[in-house]
Amino acid sequence: MSCAPCPFPAGTTLKGRYVTLAPLGAQHFDALALQALADPGSFRYMRHGPFADREAATRYLESLSTRMFEPAWAVQPESSNAASGWLSLTDIAPDDAALEIGSIWFAPSLRRTRAATEAVHLLMGEAFDALGYQRMAWRNLAANVASGAAAARFGFVFEGVWRQAAALKHRRHDVEWRSLLSGEWPARRAAVEAWLQLDNFDENGVQRRALRDFSPQSSAGRA
To answer: What is the mean pLDDT of residues 201-208?
Structure first.
């Protein structure tokens, strides 16, 4: 599917096997604020946080949930049905059929789980399959090696570095850019869907094969 211009993302609920993405709202704030306060180090490379108290965290989440230009979702794993993270679509350019995935924060209980992988996968599918976007970008501080590795794992292709392009937390930072194009998406979608299959995990939930083993790109990274 291609479009010109593409529809602006509506922020609808997205359901997968392991996780539901629900439009971020007041019903999620308490759970997310408490988890964010318990993990201040996770905000080292993010423009927002860490938060001084519950009220400050809630104010940020309220702001994120009301950004008409940046629809945000709460991540609710099927195992608990409780909000355990958030993510958004940003820098949306419908006329160019281009956007960015960002503002990703997952609580420790969500990280490196099938639900976490499926959460990002669902939002990618919404952009490419449902809305017809042709380009999705992933941006991270160069110092945030984990974010860069996560982008590569999903198949985002490294494009380059904007030197000292970001100023946050009293420092200037280089910014890395990666992208995935609509023509590359079907292979990536198939790889993630194969990795998520129940028979790829043992009785303890440990993967039998890493995501890279399903990928047509040897550089996609390790699960």
So the answer is: 94
